[in-house]
Amino acid sequence: MSKTLFVSRHPATIEWAKMKGLAIDAWVEHLDESVLLNHGDHIIGTLPINIVEALNSKGVMYSHFSLDLKKELRGKELTMEELLSCQPRLDGYTVTRMV
Predict the structure, then answer these.
(1) Nearest-CA neighbor of 6 among 52, 43, 46, 59?
(2) 26-45: per-residue pLDDT in tens?
(3) Is 83 helix (H, G, I), strand (E, B) or coil?
(4) What is the mean pLDDT of the chain?
(5) Cα(31)–Cα(21) distance, rounded to whole angstroms?
(6) Which of these, 45, 68, 49, lies nearest to 57 by C-alpha position?
(7) What ranges make up the beta strands (E) of 8-85?
(8) Which contiguous run of DSSP H or E holds residue 81?
(9) The model's pTM
């Protein structure tokens, strides 16, 4: 049975996901080797492209938590109001290494 994991350490992001009613099986702050993933699993978060490629090569789906982040909000913990002003959304990606 496939599972969906949400990867984030940001309270407003987690609150947004819960507010959207996303069906999440596990909430993790970081994705590491201890998290066992299988073909068909789904990861939601903001991960580096090389990790997304590795996930995709194993048949794991990836949705990126995207924001239109304003310059003045970079580098700070966002409140829910600030997060909502940045049009939060999930964008699906499939990454293939070209080497």
Answers:
(1) 43
(2) 999 999 877 889 999 999 99
(3) helix
(4) 95
(5) 22
(6) 49
(7) 26-28, 42-45, 61-66
(8) helix 80-84
(9) 0.92
